[in-house]
C-alpha cells in the first residue's frame, strides 16, 4: 500500500481561460482518463472552458461556486461533486479557497442513488 499526500504532489499553476490562483497536480492517468488534485486559493477561478471529456469535480475541502453551460451558479462543499459532459462550457470559483479532485475522460457517472459498479459478485 502507498499513501499519497495530495498537498505534497508537484503542482503546476494554470492560467489558461482566465484562470487565477489555480494549480493542478496529476497523480493518476490511463489511456481513457486522468485524475488530478486541484487547489484554488481564496478568490481563485478556473476560467470558463469546454470539458475535454466527461468531467467529475469532487470537493474535498472548502467551498466552490460552479456553473455549467446554462450559466446557473451552484455552491458545492466537501463531499459534493459536479459533473460536466464532454464539450460543456463550465467554470469554478472559490471565494474562500478549496481542494478537490478532478477525473476527466471516458468515465460513467451515475445519478444519485444509482449503482454504477455492482462490485465483485
From TrEMBL:
The record's section on InterPro entries has:
Cupin_2, RmlC-like_jellyroll, RmlC_Cupin_sf
Residue ranges annotated for the Cupin type-2 domain, each copy included? 38-102
Pfam families the UniProt entry points to: Cupin_2
Q: Which organism is it from?
A: Nocardioides furvisabuli
Its domain of life reads Bacteria
> What is the name listed in the Swiss-Prot or TrEMBL entry for this protein?
Cupin
Amino acid at each position: 500500500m502507498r499513501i499519497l499526500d495530495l498537498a505534497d504532489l508537484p503542482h503546476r499553476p494554470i492560467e489558461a481561460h482566465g484562470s487565477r490562483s489555480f494549480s493542478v497536480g496529476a497523480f493518476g492517468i490511463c489511456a481513457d482518463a486522468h485524475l488530478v488534485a486541484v487547489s484554488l486559493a481564496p478568490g481563485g477561478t478556473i476560467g470558463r472552458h469546454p470539458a475535454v471529456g466527461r468531467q467529475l469535480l469532487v470537493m474535498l475541502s472548502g467551498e466552490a461556486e460552479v456553473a455549467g453551460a446554462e450559466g446557473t451558479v451552484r455552491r458545492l462543499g466537501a463531499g459534493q461533486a459536479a459533473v460536466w459532459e464532454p464539450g460543456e462550457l463550465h467554470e469554478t470559483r472559490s471565494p474562500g479557497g478549496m481542494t478537490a479532485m478532478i477525473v476527466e475522460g471516458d468515465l460513467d457517472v451515475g445519478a444519485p442513488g444509482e449503482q454504477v459498479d455492482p462490485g465483485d459478485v
